[in-house]
Amino acid sequence: MSFQYAFLDPFAYFDTPRGNLPAASRPLAGSHPGPTGNPKEGLDANPFSSIKFFNTPLQLGYEESALSNAGTTEVNSFSHALVMYQQDAPVYPLDLEGQGTISVSASAAAELCICVSSADRSRPSLYLDVTPTSCTFSYGYYTSANMIPARPPPESPYVGAGTGPGMYLDVNRQTTYWLSIDCPNGILKYGKGYMSSNLTLLEARLKKLDEHGCMVWSEETWSFLEKIKEVRVLQTGGDMRALSVTTRTLPLVDAPSPYVLPDYRISMNDLESNNYTVIANLPVECQKLYANVAGPNIVLNTPDFPAFGRAIERSVSTEGCLGHTLLMRKAGEFSKKGKLHGAGADGKEEKPDLTQTYLRITLGSHMVNSPGIPYVLEIWPAGHYSPVHEHADSFAIIKVLYGTIHAFFYDSIVNPGGPRLIMDKVELKTGDITWISPQHYQVHQLKNLSKRKEDGGEGTVCCTLQCYQYAYNDKIHYENFRYIPNSSNSSPTSSPNDSGPLYGENGRSI
Length: 510
Hints:
Blueprint: E1 2-7, H1 10-15, E2 52-57, E3 62-63, H2 77-85, E4 92-93, E5 99-106, E6 111-117, E7 125-130, E8 134-141, E9 144-147, E10 175-182, E11 187-192, E12 200-205, E13 207-209, E14 215-217, E15 230-236, E16 244-248, H3 268-273, H4 284-293, H5 308-317, H6 322-330, E17 359-363, E18 375-380, E19 389-390, E20 395-402, E21 404-410, E22 426-429, E23 433-436, E24 443-447, E25 462-469
Antiparallel strand pairs: 1-2, 3-8, 4-15, 5-10, 5-16, 6-7, 6-15, 7-8, 8-9, 10-11, 11-12, 13-14, 17-18, 18-25, 19-24, 20-23, 20-25, 21-22, 21-24
Region (Disordered): 487-510
Protein name: Cysteine dioxygenase
């Protein structure tokens, strides 16, 4: 596939007077110019009268066509030149050479390019290019780039990874794009949204085990990654004022498990499999919440009321009892149209949708450091579920007190195509504990998959204790949990509701 790129004299480029690109110098289709044809639109555009353009075939990276062995993807070396030599562009240093995570929040219109280079310009640079139709890793110099073989992680259950627009640029939408560089393991990762390896969309594995069991580069070519440290970012189109870049010292390796076990129960097999984690591995906010609710006396059935769970089960499943009456009042709470009463458009009587309801009983006082009262007992009748929702960037610990609940974790509630599962469903039984942080498991849906009695099942209720806290450095304290109305299945496609009554106003009791 041919496309247009330029050989640049960077010094001549910045000595050229500013103005609009001459028509003869504008890039051809395929080089991803800005909306007006200027590839540096939004970046204080410069003329390129000293640039000569050439049509040259290059191969690189990954796009949907690669799935059919098309074997070629357009690489914009023009952007690579700009990101390396744009005037007064900030450089964001990694703390350590060859490793770290770069997070870029941007609203690009045509392309986002992240370049990581060494101080020695004779060495190649690493590029991540994200456009509306592709996402690619490449390496080389600003005049040319070469392919880094990459694919979505084959073991990932992340629904939608590897296909569709979810991998690519969210045009004119403020989105977080991240790049993880892990030289010790020889792994590059790209993802969007929360900085978690569960959200990896593209991955390159560049090391292998040698005969001595040591990790070595599969090709000596990749050794240049050991020295890269300087980060530069180029955004084409969109609002440049919204561009934000941060770096972290460590790469994204394995996301901590959603299951939390006491440290005395962890085995060597658990360390190998990463099926469980311990509270010491989690943020301090989660550690504090865990210390309050993980104890052996935080239970539903107590010696003075050993059948409390069965009593709740009868109350929520029997018409006329308090629990069932409260559920009837909440019917339709999370639908697009609000509560369902009276006749529908076809003249037939509409029955309230009870299955997307559950009861929430707050415990204690509002401590003003969480979205509402921090401790909430939630009652989930058989077959009932929550909408897909997020947690206002708060931390949380969830303990199952009775029955079984299933958690479905998603990437975002604002994806154009709807939220995508990032892992298989998680089953939590009595005594089990899971957790939430601003970067892990922030978007989820809870379901009691026990069959209702009217459907021939046992109708087992589930009771959970949820507890929340803002980050210690959170200066926003957003009180509500945004949700997707009518998200009745595990992959809903309805649009997020960003206004009106929001799910999770947990300062209010049932």
